[in-house]
Every structure is written in structure tokens, then in C-alpha cells.
Predict the 3D structure of the following.
Amino acid sequence: MLNFHRFDDAVTVAQQAAQLDSNNKEVNMVVRRTRATAGARSKGNELFRLQRYSEACIAYGEGLDHDPYNSVLLCNRATCRSKLGQFEKAIDDCTAALNVRPSYRKARLRRAECNAKLEKWEACLQDYEVMIKETPEDNEVECTLKDAKVQLEKQRSQVMSDTKVAPSEAFLALSPLLQAPPPSSSKSPLLPSIAPQFAPSRSSTVEAFLATPQKIDFVVVVSLSSLFS
């Protein structure tokens, strides 16, 4: 793994090692890999500057073929992917970079921003909380942290609201029947042949049901025992 945070330093160290032992195959292989990684990074940076983000992604990927755990290349590719709207892939790259280098603030910030784009506020908040602990004087992070908290509360409130659904059509159709007063005549309009003592009346169960606002969507099944108890 060549994971030097500064590419120039990595190339210099590799070249010095090669000079000390020019016949060492492993050292020469490291030199080649280091140069290829540095070249891919330079190419990717130039393409990014030209806003050719897809091509820049490919260039950084070529560098990662030589050094899969290079946190700088992973973060740079994440930036390209976020520019392309590929936020999930960008998050994956940032996470990989942070696994290699947990203190990599740029990768953590990029991941927080991508989670915000996806409205994954809880994950977003976790990264901002880490950053504010590292630099409590950072006003920009503090403001973004507060906004993430507000958005998370709104999201939770919306989820709670979405679980409360209006009554179903079946309930609305039966509602007038349930709310109708008992008939004064001994003959029920629904069952004319039933004796007066069996005339429809609302049971205590139905009364309690009607007295409570119902916001859960369901199909009401009314039995004879509840209508004529």
C-alpha cells in the first residue's frame, strides 16, 4: 500500500529506495506503481479542473488500480461522483478513505454533504458532530450542524405524520349507519320483522369507537352482535 498523503513525497521516497538498491525487483515495482499512481492523480486533477468529471473519475480509478487504499484518490473520486449526482458511490469512496485515514476531514465533510443531498440526516449529523468536536471554533460547521439537526427533526415529524392515514372508504360508508339514532318504531328500517327489544342500538363499543378520532386506515367489519347488542 502506497498510501502517502503527499504524492511528491511518495515518488521521492520510492526513487531514493531504487537508487540504494537498483537491482531489487520489489523496490522497482514500488517505484513504477508510485509513478503510475501519481500520474493518474495529476491527470484526474486536470480533468476535474476542466469539469470533465466522468473522465476524472476514470483517471482516479486507474490510480486506485495501483493503490486501492489511497485515501486521496478515493476522496478525489468521491468529489467527482458527487458532481455527477452519484451520491451513494461518493459516500462509499469517502467511507473507504476514512477507513484508511480516520482523521481525513475533507473525506468526512464530503460524506456529510452527500448524505445531506440524499436527506440521510442522521448519518449527516454524525459526521458533523465528529468535525465540531475536532474544531469547535469552526462556525461554518457549527451552522451546518444546527441545520442538519433541524432537518432531522422535520424528517422524523413527517414520518410520524405519514403513519396517520385518513379513514378508509369502507369506514366512511358505514359511518352514517353507526351514527344513526335508534328507531322510535318497533319496526327497524333495516330488519322490519325483528321485535322491538332487538331494535338496533349502538353498543358501548361502537360509542367509544365513534368518540375517538380514528386515523388508521382499515376496513370496518360490523357484526350483528355489535349492532344489536
